[in-house]
Structures are given as structure tokens and as C-alpha cells.
Amino acid sequence: MADDDHQPPDADNPPDQWSKANRVFELSGLGVRYGTVAAISDVDLDIGEREITAFIGPSGCGKSTVLRCLNRMNDLIDSAVVEGTVLYHGVDLYDPLVDPVVIRRRIGMVFQKPNPFPSSIYDNVAYGPRIAGVKDKLDDVVEGSLMRAGLWDEAKDRLDVSALEMSGGQQQRLCIARAIALNPDVLLMDEPCSALDPVATGRIEELMQEIKNDYTIVIVTHDMAQAERISDRTAFFMAGIQGPTGQRRGELVEFDDTEVMFSNPADERTNAYVRSGSPGRDT
Description:
Low-confidence stretches: 1-18, 278-283
Number of domains: 1
Helix content: 25-40%
Order of helices and strands: EEEHEEHEHHHHEHEHEEHH
């Protein structure tokens, strides 16, 4: 897959909300197995452009597994087998001709625990562009990425300081800046606030709202209130008992506008979960 092929639709002329051209991801019959153990099965959902989509559900329901399918992170697990179809702007992500390295440049990921490199703030942000061959105007890339991540004012006078000296919330925003530096189309966030205090969490949430006009964001969160506050659409997953072995397997229960999911969900299981505010953690 060439780096210039299959560019996202024109943001200045957006089609109707759920027209095919405006679907960044189309998942059909998605399932993932780790060896003989099915983690998730039969997931059908579309993710719209420049929206925040939240994946919620209790521990072990497969929401992080689905998230990792969106930039082929499951490829890094030898026992993982992905079934079904994942289209990205109409392109099959799992086509043998698709380069997963190119995909991960376009579809950045921010993990649960901040994971800055043990190097300077500057070098953390510059790392990806350097690997991608960017040589000119690297200072501008670093500054622009830190600005979009809401970190420039705090970091501009200490760019040569180790990123490990930053606070947890700053480190997580640095990781967002590092992802943004590659000019991605999508940002995937796997419980990005679970290791942060309420103040830092609030800043990350504000940041997501600020940048969603530039990026499609998909977030896994165990925090019901967070999903309700920040997302446009919400997918609820849960794990059910499958077959005589009693094995647990994740499934998509319901997917709709967030307002509907939290006020008038169609499935009673969704209603029970969002009313409970259960803080289940994913595995």
C-alpha cells in the first residue's frame, strides 16, 4: 500500500454523516482468536470520520482486542488470528499487499500507561518523523505536534530535558504529540486516562475535544462518565459463556449515538451496565 494511496475523504466537503465515503472503518464479521481461544466474534460496526467513538464494557469483553485490530497491532501476537473484514477508507487492512508499518503511521496509538522514550522531550516527538525520513523543518514538526497536544507552553523551554522527568499527565500528552507528529488520520486510545489523576484526566479529555476536528478518535474506556462526556458514539461489549466448555467470548451488544446509549439503549444488558457505572478493566 503506497503511502499516498487511499487518502481520507475531503474534510472541506463532508458527505452525509453515514454515507460510505465518511466511514473511516467498516468492520464486518470481525473475530479474533488467540490460538484456540476466541476473544471476540461477529463484530459489525462502522466508525465515522472526525468523531470520538468509545468502546465500553467489563473486563475481558474484547474491546481492546477490537481496538488493536484497527491498526494491526494484533499482528505482533504470534497466536492471534483475525477473521472477518476490517476496511479502512474502503481498503482491506488485512490484504497481503497492505504494509502494516504504513498503517501504523496513519493510525496512531496511545496506550494505557504513558510510555515516553528515555530521551529528551524533543527527541520523543521527533523520533517518528526521523524514522519516516523527515529531515527539513523538524523543529516545526516538533513545535506543531506539542502545540496540538496542548503541551508546547509547558515544554518549550525544556525540550532537552528527559521526558521521564515530566508528570504522568504531561507524559501522556507527550505520547499523543508523538503520535500526532506522524500526521495520522486516526488516533486509537486504550484507556489513556486510567493511570492519571482527575486533573490530568480532565486535560486529556479537553484535548480530545480540541483535536477531534482533525482526527478520528477511538477510545477504550472503563469510565462510564468519561464515555458519556466525550464521545459521539458508543459501542458496548460484553463477554458471554459459549458452548459446553464454558469459555467466555466477547461480543458487541449495541452500538449507537452516545446520548441514546446512556439515555435509552435498545438492549437491557446495555441499560444495566451503564446504570451500574461498573469500572470493569479490559484484558
